[in-house]
What we know:
Distance between the termini: 47 Å
Order of helices and strands: HEEEEEEEEE
Oligomer: single chain
Helix content: 10-25%
Number of strands: 9
Amino acid sequence: xxxxxxxxxxxxxxxxxxxxxxxxxxxxxxxxxxxxxxxxxxxxxxxxxxxxxxxxxxxxxxxxxxxxxxxxxxxxxxxxxxxxxxxxxxxxxxxxxxxxxxxxxxxxxxxxxxxxxxxxxxxxxxxxxxxxxxxxx
Length: 137
């Protein structure tokens, strides 16, 4: 009888660990395929609610037009359009995931809607196509 109780306990424990880790690692990635305006101006994506109170957001670029290698990207609040991260952060367009830092004295809380802004890292007179993903975490 002790043998079955021990096996049952181990099975229940394994099931709990598997379930918890599946929920903990499940993060939705918001994909985009858009253009960055020529000259001055930025592209803003639809607001997305944060899932945590952490100090970073996740971003990656899987495509950028030939002749360009990275994109400036930052988060801003939905209602007042206040920058929540450095608008001069540049991220390589190489298909990898990167973490951007929110301003340490103004980290948005869980549930706060944020907008991803993107801009060309160099002044250009042509529209630049980009594709990628982000999550305000």
